[in-house]
Structures are given as C-alpha cells and as structure tokens.
Design a protein that fits this description.
Blueprint: E1 3-4, E2 7-8, E3 14-16, H1 25-33, E4 39-40, E5 44-45, H2 46-51, H3 54-58, E6 69-74, H4 78-90, E7 95-100, H5 105-108, H6 120-133, E8 138-143, H7 153-163, E9 168-171, H8 186-192, E10 201-204, H9 210-220, E11 224-227, H10 237-247, H11 256-274, H12 276-283, H13 287-290, H14 298-306, H15 310-324
Helix pairs in contact: 1-11, 4-6, 6-7, 7-8, 9-10, 11-12, 11-15
Length: 325
C-alpha cells in the first residue's frame, strides 16, 4: 500500500496533477468520479495567500467528496511559504504540496517553482520551514534539474526526504526543456531505486494512455503516476488507466454521447462556479480533449472557441451529439 502520512492511497495511485486554470473544483469532481486517487488544487501563490487575495484564497475551496486532496503552494521566500502553509492548513486539506517544478517564466524567473532548482539551499530551507510549521503531511513536486548540466534530482530527493517530506513527485524533464521533447524517466527510476529512499516516489511526464502508465510502472518501479496534460478535457483517462492496470484490458473509447455529456456537465459547473464569462472562457482549454479524433470537427471547434454565449455552446453540443453519435 502507498501511504502519505496516514493517507492510504491503495496499491498504485493514479493522481491528478495540479494545473493552473485546469484543476478547479468543477473539473476535479469529474476526475474524482472517474477514479483519481489523489487530486490537487491549482497551484497557489504564497504571496497571494498572505495578502488574502481573492484569486488565491478562492483556490483553497473544495468539497468533502474530493478527498483526498492536497493544496499546492509556490513561492521563493522562506517566511512567505511558511505563512502560506499555515493559511492553507486552515482549509483542512489532506496534505500540502510544494511546487518546485513550475517552469513558466513568471514563476521560475522570480525564483519560485523550478527556479528553486538553481538554489537548492533555499529549496531545502523552504521545505524545512513548511514541514516544521504544519501537522499535515508535506509533499514536493519538482523536476530533474534546472538544465542538462544540473540533473541533481537523486541528491535533491534524499535531502528533502531527510528534512521530512512524505512523498515526492518528479516530472521527467528539466526546467530548460519546459514541456518539449520526451520525458526522461531514467532518473525518476534512480530516485525510486535508491536504497536510501523510503518515501513514495511518483512519476510524472507523458502519461497519455493506459499502456504508457503500465509501461512506466513496470520499467521504473514507481509507487504511482501523476497525469497532467493528457487529462485536460479527458477525465475518463483515470477510468481507462485504472481498468487497464487492474485487468490488462482496454476499455472501449468513450462514445460521442458520453463525451458531450461530460462536457455539458463540466461547462454547467464551471459557469456556476466562476460566472458566465469566466466559466465559458476557461472551458475553452478542454474542448480539444473532449472531442479529440472526431473527423471534420474544425468548424464546431472554432465556434466553441469563439462564442461567449453559453446557450449557443449548449446548442453546438447538441448538434455535435446528433451528427457524430
């Protein structure tokens, strides 16, 4: 069994990655229903939490049925991250995750996220401060290193474990790679098979099919996998992956009717959660996933990506269902 603190995540957890403007409550609920074993909030700025900024504090919200759930925070300052962890703790999540892997310039360029891979002493100081400040399990999500000349993840993982983190998720790319090229799981495997490591090691990067999930599980011996980009507009990937891991059988591809139903439910929840404008706009990231592989779909995709009228979107979804089912 894979345990993070007192959390029992089963034999081989399949986990939803934290993603900005993606893993909000409406989408998390769909992923949970499809079998996600652990989920995370969107990453939350430590400075935003300390300032009580509405955008940041709203990301703390979740409902009981989403558990187990972790709140992920990011930042570059020790005191700010410690204070942010205390704010996050009050929301009563199951764990607190530290983002040491976000590669985008506005985060890494300011010393947060993957930027801390250039300053390991600061990374360890932040981690130690957070671990000491909270009674909740603390986990870390990071990358192999800053660039090809500094793939120090084996040493980093040991140091963070020694400080007291209770699981580590590793994305198989450096910050310099961003999301380009193929994820390299070799060093993830080295971390997992390091005799000094005793906490769960979760692999992340390019898991986009049940077959890939099983392949990485068997080849590298990780304790679980985290799925990121492949889940966008595709919450049923959790159902497919878990079924394949348990039975060796592939489930049939989701029908158009089911995809439309999920998309409609997602859009409705998004509008209820964020309001009509934001709910419609932020759903645009998901349409390519929901309707991937449908022949001659471009005219409908363009309409979905341009209209701001949610009633019109529901009409488009009805049309898609009637034409393609």
């Amino acid at each position: 069994m894979v345990k993070i603190g007192t959390l029992n995540l089963g034999e081989f957890p399949v986990i939803l990655a934290p993603m900005e403007d993606i893993t909000d409550p409406p989408f998390r609920r769909l992923c949970k229903r499809m079998g996600a074993d652990l989920m995370f909030t969107e990453f939350i700025s430590s400075d935003g939490l300390i300032r009580d900024a509405i955008k940041s504090t709203r990301k703390l919200d979740f409902i009981e049925s989403e558990r187990p759930l972790g709140i992920q925070i990011f930042g570059s300052e020790v005191d700010a991250m410690r204070e942010a962890a205390l704010v996050a703790e009050k929301a009563n999540p199951d764990l607190i995750d530290l983002n040491f892997g976000c590669p985008v310039r506005k985060v890494a360029g300011k010393g947060g996220g993957a930027g801390l891979l250039k300053d390991i002493p600061r990374m360890t100081a932040i981690t130690e401060a957070v671990v000491k400040s909270t009674h909740l399990p603390v986990t870390v999500k990071t990358r192999l290193g800053w660039d090809d000349s500094s793939k120090d993840i084996v040493e980093i993982a040991e140091r963070l474990q020694d400080i007291g983190i209770q699981a580590i998720t590793i994305h198989g790319r450096t910050r310099a790679q961003m999301y380009k090229g193929e994820a390299d799981w070799t060093l993830i495997g080295e971390v997992k098979n390091n005799p000094r490591m005793h906490i769960p090691v979760i692999g992340n990067g390019d898991i986009d099919s049940p077959q890939k999930a099983l392949e990485q599980k068997n080849r590298y011996g990780v304790d679980g996998i985290m799925i990121g980009r492949a889940v966008v507009g595709n919450p049923t990937i959790f159902r497919s992956v878990k079924h394949f891991l348990q039975t060796g059988e592939l489930l049939p591809e989701s029908s158009i009717s089911e995809r439309v139903a999920f998309c409609r439910e997602h859009l409705t929840s998004s509008i209820e959660w964020k309001g009509a404008h934001a709910g419609v706009v932020e759903m645009r990231k998901h349409y390519a996933g929901y309707f991937k592989g449908i022949k001659d779909f471009k005219p409908y995709r363009m309409k979905l990506l341009t209209t701001l009228d949610y009633n019109e979107i529901f009409e488009i979804l009805n049309t898609i269902k009637s034409i393609y089912q």
